[in-house]
Design brief:
alpha+beta
Length: 509
């Protein structure tokens, strides 16, 4: 999960890109970068950390031009603190291309070997995004007639990317002297939306991971980039698009609506806020059917993602809704922190309990999901320390029992608390009196109620069915081995102190 943004405007775009990344900061806290284009010259600045920490006034002044892309990084396949993997990535051959990517290629290892052996291209990092950039560059070179890059060449190149790449990818890219390119994998797993702003000088265009970035910057949501579709916007603002995957299937990641996206966003025609309200309704239905025996006094959400769900659940059951936790907004989202040790330490830094809302009460705590159980265990303990008689824990999502390989940091089965455990065993693990999970069919129904046109979802972390069809037991085993090795290295770093962070930037390329 990362945040990407691309803009073609009539005035300098550096501030717009910066503001867009701030609005998408929840999608990645590891690194950030912006590249702008002035004529055939790219200007780049990127580095590790939050958006506000990466860019200074002098950096912004150097980002000249009316077109650009931005990226905030959440580590998936790459290393958490490797500054060389901050995006956007740049390649100078054949035309000069920069690219930002949200998602994860499942066949990036084979592609990396293929790029060196057949395409004669060197990949410098362990990032699948650099592999994707080089595949695009190679195919664009083949598609361009007489080294002239137009919309036809762009669409032919993206069609070839779809044939070669597997997994999830929403992409923004710029080709020097040509324009902005955006495309989405043939299943539309990761989100990408298009916005437009009409000015006296002509239309301005913006593509971004979520609609909230468009609307806050004065762009109107036009539509989503379709699964398998490519969009090309030239420097004059001329817009062209084409379906580049003949057998595209619309199956967005359902976890976007559970946790990843902001509630004020609209993705694939679904209001995230509305979907979370429906999740609360469906969860209330289940409690009414199967958990009538629980004597619940109060419903308390884990801020912030689960608030709409918890509010609707309480309303549906006729229970009191209270805010029992206060969130420190200067601590990042614990789920997307790179190391388990850092994640565990951050829970109590992030949340504090209001004791009066727990004392001598039977409390139903509602969270968006239970992944590793680290956060849930600490939250239950905080409720008990605040005097709760009984603590019940409800999840707006079903049990996460399988690795997600499409860009979410949950690739190891041993890390997932629900793998191999019953609900009673999970409750014992996190110290709760009972655990209540949403049913998968109910979750699908909750999202589909917000957009009945959605027929299919990517739900592999709940049911183990990988929609791209190329994820095998061997692949998952190799992922887990790499993950275990990386975690062991991170554990050694934690014992020695926080790893060093190296700043990488370039004012121009």
């Amino acid at each position: 999960m990362c945040g990407i943004v691309g803009i073609v405007a009539r005035s300098p775009v550096n501030q717009l890109l910066y503001d867009g990344l701030l609005l998408l900061q929840h999608r990645g806290q590891d690194a950030a970068g912006i590249v702008t284009s002035a004529g055939s010259t790219f200007h780049m600045h990127k580095g590790p950390g939050l958006v506000r920490d990466v860019f200074r006034t002098r950096d912004m002044r150097a980002l000249q031009g009316h077109m650009g892309i931005g990226h905030c990084r959440y580590p998936t396949a790459g290393s958490a603190f490797d500054a060389g993997e901050a995006q956007p990535f740049y390649v100078n051959s054949p035309f000069g291309i920069v690219l930002g990517h949200n998602g994860n290629l499942t066949n990036w290892g084979e592609l990396k070997e293929e790029m060196f052996r057949l395409d004669r291209r060197h990949i410098n990092t362990n990032s699948d995004s650099e592999v994707l950039l080089n595949v695009l560059a190679h195919e664009l070179e083949r598609a361009a007639r007489g080294y002239r890059v137009d919309s036809e060449a762009v669409f032919a190149a993206v069609a070839a990317v779809h044939r070669r790449c597997r997994g999830a990818y929403a992409v923004v890219a710029m080709v020097a002297g040509t324009g902005l390119v955006a495309f989405r994998d043939p299943y539309g797993i990761r989100p990408l939306v298009i916005g437009r702003s009409d000015t006296p000088d002509g239309p301005e265009w913006m593509v971004a991971s979520e609609s909230v970035a468009l609307e806050a910057l004065g762009f109107s949501l036009v539509r989503d980039v379709g699964p398998g579709e490519a969009v090309h916007i030239d420097e004059a603002g001329r817009f062209a698009s084409r379906q580049c995957a003949p057998q595209a299937v619309h199956a967005p990641c359902i976890f976007e609506y559970v946790y990843l996206a902001r509630p004020d966003s609209v993705l694939d025609g679904v209001s995230v806020y509305e979907a979370r309200l429906h999740m609360g309704e469906r969860l209330a239905d289940k409690i009414r059917r199967q958990y009538r025996h629980l004597d619940i006094d109060v419903v308390i959400p884990v801020p912030d993602t689960s608030r709409p769900c918890a509010l609707q659940l309480a309303t549906g059951l006729g229970l009191t809704y209270r805010e029992g936790f206060v969130r420190n907004r200067y601590v990042g989202r614990t789920f997307i922190m790179p190391g388990q040790t850092v994640r565990k330490k951050s829970v109590r830094h992030k949340l504090s309990a209001i004791s009066m809302e727990f004392k001598d009460k039977n409390v139903l705590i509602v969270d968006d999901s239970i992944v590793r159980g680290t956060t849930s265990r600490e939250i239950v303990q905080m409720a008990r320390e605040s005097g709760a008689r009984k603590v019940f824990f409800a999840s707006a999502a079903p049990p996460v029992r399988f690795p997600n390989v499409y860009g979410i940091d949950m690739p190891t089965r041993s890390e997932l608390i629900a793998t191999g455990r019953t609900e009673d065993e999970i409750a014992a693990e996190i110290g709760a009196d009972a655990v209540i999970y949403q049913d998968l069919d109910a979750l699908k129904r909750a999202v589909r109620e917000a957009n009945p046109g959605l027929e299919q979802f990517e739900t592999s972390c709940f049911d183990g069915e990988y929609i791209t069809g190329d994820v095998t037991s061997q692949y998952l085993g190799e992922l887990e081995t790499r993950r275990d090795d990386k975690r062991q290295e991170q554990g050694e770093e934690d014992e020695e102190g926080e790893p060093g962070r190296v700043h990488v930037s370039a004012s121009s390329i």
